[in-house]
Design brief:
This protein is an all-alpha fold and 302 residues long. The protein has 12 helices and no strands.
């Protein structure tokens, strides 16, 4: 897979302008299964992002490199914004009114808050080791999201016109920032002395279980939908993947094992040119975010 070499882009949080008020319930070409497959991004991502943010925040007191600390702050800003925007989409789709989803999100947040309290209460050096263990899980999850982000920006794998325009803008903006910050948790983990053994400890079982968990959660959501009520169909998933409505689980699966290599680094995952091309297309959702930077450059040239 292609990797763009060069300096890491500056990690900063953007504030996209998105309006989901007209987004339909089945926002992937009116296809309920494809929509429910991707809905996990809206209700599952926010709780995950908060877990990632808290893990990196817990590591900040140990970071002695100024640029890495700045990148860590940028990571926190980006992930916090992702959580807010996906929650707005979930609220529009009324996903939090589904009891299984609401209970799952609340349970995840409770576990994260308990973990925060327990880690903060630990004496050194146990606290540092607990933070490293936390970061190892963040690094693993960020590998998965970087793979998904690169696929989301690959027009040969996903078709933006298959998705409601506002939802497509949300997913592509999120993908751009995932590629921008994909190396930050890994570099923080390594900066704090994280080992290869700890990094890969959860990886193999996570990779093996991932398809079953995703398909199971999607099927549960589909059957809880009062307007649909059918279980997950692997045949329909493969058809949707061929039509580029959803990422193919096979495309994802073949790209995950690189994480297990001792010389793995997130910069080797994905193509930065896809993110750059999307930003260069001047997406309307980011127009207001670009304006202040343009004004600053104009003022500096005068």
């Amino acid at each position: 897979m292609t990797v763009t070499e060069g300096p890491r882009p500056r990690v900063r949080a953007r504030q996209p302008k998105l309006d989901f008020s007209q987004s339909p319930k089945y926002w992937v070409l009116g296809d309920p299964q494809s929509t429910h497959t991707l809905n996990i991004l809206h209700y599952g991502i926010p709780a995950g992002e908060r877990f990632f943010v808290d893990g990196v925040r817990a590591a900040m007191p140990y970071i002695t490199d100024a640029q890495l600390l700045a990148d860590a702050r940028g990571f926190v800003g980006q992930e916090s914004t992702h959580a807010r925007m996906h929650e707005k989409a979930a609220e529009r789709l009324d996903l939090f009114s589904i009891p299984q989803i609401r209970a799952g999100v609340e349970a995840a947040d409770r576990r994260r808050e308990q973990l925060n309290r327990r880690v903060k209460a630990l004496p050194e050096p146990l606290r540092r080791q607990a933070v490293l263990l936390w970061l190892s899980q963040v690094v693993l999850a960020e590998h998965v999201t970087a793979v998904l982000a690169d696929i989301a920006l690959d027009d040969d794998k996903t078709h933006a016109d298959a998705v409601d325009p506002q939802m497509a803008a949300l997913l592509r903006w999120h993908a751009v920032e995932e590629l921008e910050h994909r190396s930050v948790p890994f570099d923080v983990y390594r900066h704090l002395g994280g080992t290869y053994a700890m990094r890969v400890a959860f990886a193999l079982p996570a990779f093996l279980l991932m398809p079953f968990v995703l398909f199971g959660v999607t099927s549960q959501l589909m059957q809880a939908d009062p307007d649909f009520g059918h279980p997950f169909s692997l045949r329909q998933h493969l058809e949707a993947a061929r039509a580029r409505r959803v990422p193919s689980i096979l495309d994802v699966a073949v790209r995950l094992p690189g994480y297990l290599l001792p010389n793995h680094h997130p910069s080797k995952v994905g193509d930065d040119r896809r993110a750059a091309a999307y930003l260069a297309s001047n997406p309307p959702s980011l127009a207001d975010d670009r304006a202040p930077a343009k004004r600053r450059r104009a003022a500096a040239s005068n």
